[in-house]
């Protein structure tokens, strides 16, 4: 993480925010004075019949309108800066480890038939998804969730995504701006309703819509004729009334045809700003260039959304009685708006889905890039193409632990089993969870928290957080049996796999546990499987003598006075120490004499 860059950006934004606040006060004052002056000039002109007063009032009115527009632009800039500061604060909070209050934890993506989601903290409270998710659209979140799959992906696709993520990391200001715009959208924004409504088959426009040119032309002719005295002055008034009657009769149909504009009105300006940044950036990665090509192919997304934005403004103005009456009486504005929107749908509707999908892909890349934006040490994984299982990591830490508190570990694993022992709280479970989760993160195309990380194609299977299910009559022990059974059955497919089992068969007595664990380990020690098993049963450590593919590793504790300490470093060989009695005594459950 380039902390200096983000701190500098934060200071710059705070300074601009302060400047804009002062400027806004001046604009509000200028608007008030200008409005009052314009009203006074108009009143003087009305009272004295002096033309120059009307001219001054008109000039002041134009200045007032310009100030209103400028004030609107300033307020939009302030909202953007507020959102950008929120993104910056989020980056800094994640680097400090204070990120667990982030709103979206991905719990909706948890699957009962995929225990890895819970075992490895992929989704749910305090999860990897909660840490990295920058997507605001439902589609973007769905794609991000789908990227975390325990099955090995197409590595060429992963490398392609990695290059897109890497480019965003090289363009931190672009990433900041895009995420700031995205954060201004409604949470879990769903565009499917808009897309479906726009893609619906267009109904034929009735002949009434031909009147949008005929009637204003007739009004122009009769108005001109009345002006020179050729017809009665009530004739153009009658035409205006007729135009208004036509517009009123067309209201139900117009409302139905224009209904999609209501769905996107709030987000349209944000999408236009996002697409403008993406269209105007020259990317080097295939992934982001593909997004840019989608937005500029055949028709420009920005130009089409600019046109749509004008139509949204006009549709909103229809609800103003004065605009509705004058616009339709003079020009049949509703009919013009409906036909313009129908033409827009013909030209751009087929592209809208691909534009939104392209943005959803960028949301995924932004989310995956957040690891590099918030961590000091990270790397992009490399992938072994050979079929033999292989996993080699250096300096791996947990994404879910604060950067400053993470303890790095190294390991190189091939087909075989590692039995991991160590005292309570020494780091056994955290290590196997960190390693397995990092494999899934690597498959997503994101960087991982390590100095180097290389992995072959491995299906990731776990048995870590095993719970009973009273409603189904399933005990903890039986639930674990089913998990390990599924691992053994997977080995029969002769496909590479990473198995992580925490405190194997902890739900039964020690004698049965040791017997069952030994047999399970034998079944899971083969040419295609990397197996990690944590245990407190030292008898399992003796299995290294019966199979050269079984090895021991351990974590240690040490004491400073009466205080127990852990260094969380993985070491070769078995442990020979325990600390359960010490912890029981610290908790006041047993007394010193009870341990003698």
Topology:
Blueprint: H1 3-48, H2 51-96, H3 116-119, H4 128-132, H5 138-147, H6 155-170, H7 172-183, H8 192-199, H9 211-227, H10 234-249, H11 251-258, H12 260-264, H13 268-279, H14 286-296, H15 301-317, H16 321-331, H17 333-374, E1 382-383, E2 390-396, E3 409-414, E4 416-422, H18 428-444, E5 452-455, E6 459-463, H19 476-491, E7 497-501, H20 510-524, E8 529-534, E9 550-555, E10 557-560, E11 563-566, E12 571-572, H21 580-586
Parallel strand pairs: 1-5, 4-8, 4-9, 6-7, 7-8
Antiparallel strand pairs: 2-3, 2-5, 9-12, 10-11
Helix pairs in contact: 1-2, 2-7, 5-17, 6-17, 7-13, 9-10, 10-16, 11-17, 13-15, 14-17, 15-17, 16-17
Structural account:
This protein is α/β, with parallel strands linked by helices. Helix content is 57%, strand content 10%. It has a six-stranded mixed beta sheet, with helices on both faces. Strands 1-5-2-3 form a four-stranded mixed beta sheet, covered by helices on one side. A two-stranded antiparallel sheet has the order 10-11. It is elongated. The mean pLDDT is 89.
Number of domains: 3
Q: Roughly what fraction of the amino acids lie in strands?
A: 5-15%
Largest sheet geometry: 6 strands, mixed
Would you identify the CATH H-level superfamily of the largest domain?
A: P-loop containing nucleotide triphosphate hydrolases
- Span between termini: 52 Å
**Strands in their spatial order, largest beta sheet:** 6-7-8-4-9-12
**What average pLDDT do the residues reach?**
89
Beta strand count: 12
Class inferred from helices and paired strands: alpha/beta
* Weakly predicted, low-confidence segments: none
CATH class of the largest domain: Alpha Beta
Shape descriptor reads elongated
CATH topology of the largest domain: Rossmann fold
Overall CATH architecture of the largest domain: 3-Layer(aba) Sandwich
Taking Cα atoms only, what radius of gyration do you get, to the nearest Å? 34 Å
Q: What is the share of helical residues?
A: 55-70%
| Total of DSSP H or I helical runs spanning 4+ residues | 21
């Amino acid at each position: 993480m380039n902390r200096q860059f983000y701190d500098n950006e934060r200071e710059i934004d705070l300074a601009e925010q302060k400047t804009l606040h002062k400027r806004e006060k001046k604009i509000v004052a200028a608007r008030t004075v200008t409005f009052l002056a314009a009203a006074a000039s108009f009143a003087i002109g009305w009272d004295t019949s002096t033309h120059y007063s009307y001219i001054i009032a008109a000039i002041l009115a134009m200045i007032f309108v310009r100030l209103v527009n400028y004030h609107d632009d300033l307020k939009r800039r302030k909202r953007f800066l507020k959102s950008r500061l929120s993104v910056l604060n989020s980056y800094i909070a994640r680097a400090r480890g204070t990120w667990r209050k982030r709103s979206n934890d991905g719990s909706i993506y948890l699957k009962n038939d995929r225990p890895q989601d819970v075992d490895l903290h992929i989704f749910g409270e305090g999860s990897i998804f909660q840490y990295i998710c920058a997507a605001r659209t439902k589609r973007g979140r769905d794609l991000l969730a789908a990227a975390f799959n325990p099955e090995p992906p197409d590595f060429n696709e992963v490398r392609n995504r990695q290059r897109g993520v890497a480019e965003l990391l090289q363009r931190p200001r672009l990433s900041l701006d895009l995420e700031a715009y995205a954060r201004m959208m409604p949470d879990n924004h769903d565009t499917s309703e808009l897309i479906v409504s726009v893609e619906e088959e267009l109904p034929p426009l009735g002949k009434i819509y031909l009147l949008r040119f005929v009637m204003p032309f007739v009004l122009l002719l009769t108005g001109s004729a009345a002006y020179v005295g050729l017809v009665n002055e009530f004739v153009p008034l009658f035409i205006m009334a007729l135009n208004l009657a036509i517009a009123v009769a067309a209201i139900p149909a117009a409302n139905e045809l224009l209904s999609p504009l209501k769905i996107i009105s709030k987000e349209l300006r944000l999408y236009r700003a996002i697409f403008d940044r993406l269209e105007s950036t020259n990317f080097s990665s295939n992934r982001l260039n593909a997004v840019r090509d989608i937005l500029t192919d055949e028709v420009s997304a920005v130009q089409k959304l600019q046109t749509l934005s004008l139509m949204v403004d006009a549709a909103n103005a229809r609800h103003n009685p004065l605009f509705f009456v004058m616009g339709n009486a003079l020009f049949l504005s509703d009919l013009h708006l409906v036909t313009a929107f129908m033409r827009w749908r013909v030209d751009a509707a087929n592209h809208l889905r691909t534009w939104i999908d392209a943005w959803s892909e960028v949301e995924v890349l932004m989310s995956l890039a957040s690891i590099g934006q918030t961590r000091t040490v990270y790397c992009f994984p490399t992938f072994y193409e050979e079929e033999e299982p292989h996993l080699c990591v250096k300096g791996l830490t947990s994404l879910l632990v604060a950067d400053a508190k993470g303890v790095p570990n190294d390991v190189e694993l091939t087909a075989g089993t590692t039995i991991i022992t160590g005292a309570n709280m020494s780091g056994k479970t955290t290590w196997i969870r960190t390693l397995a989760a990092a494999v899934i993160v690597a498959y997503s195309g994101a960087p991982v928290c390590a100095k180097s990380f290389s992995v072959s194609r491995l299906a990731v299977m776990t048995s870590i957080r095993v719970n009973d299910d009273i409603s189904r009559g399933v005990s903890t022990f039986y639930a674990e049996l089913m998990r390990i059974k599924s691992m053994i059955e997977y080995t029969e497919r002769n496909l590479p796999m990473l198995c992580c089992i925490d405190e194997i068969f902890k739900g039964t007595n020690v004698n049965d546990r040791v017997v069952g664990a030994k047999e399970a380990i034998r079944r899971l020690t083969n040419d295609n499987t990397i197996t990690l098993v944590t245990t407190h049963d030292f008898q399992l450590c003796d299995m290294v003598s019966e199979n050269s593919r079984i090895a021991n590793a351990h974590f240690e504790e040490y004491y400073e006075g009466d205080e127990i300490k852990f260094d969380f470093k993985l070491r070769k060989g078995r442990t020979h120490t325990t600390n359960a009695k010490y912890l029981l005594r610290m908790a006041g459950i047993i007394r010193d004499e009870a341990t003698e």
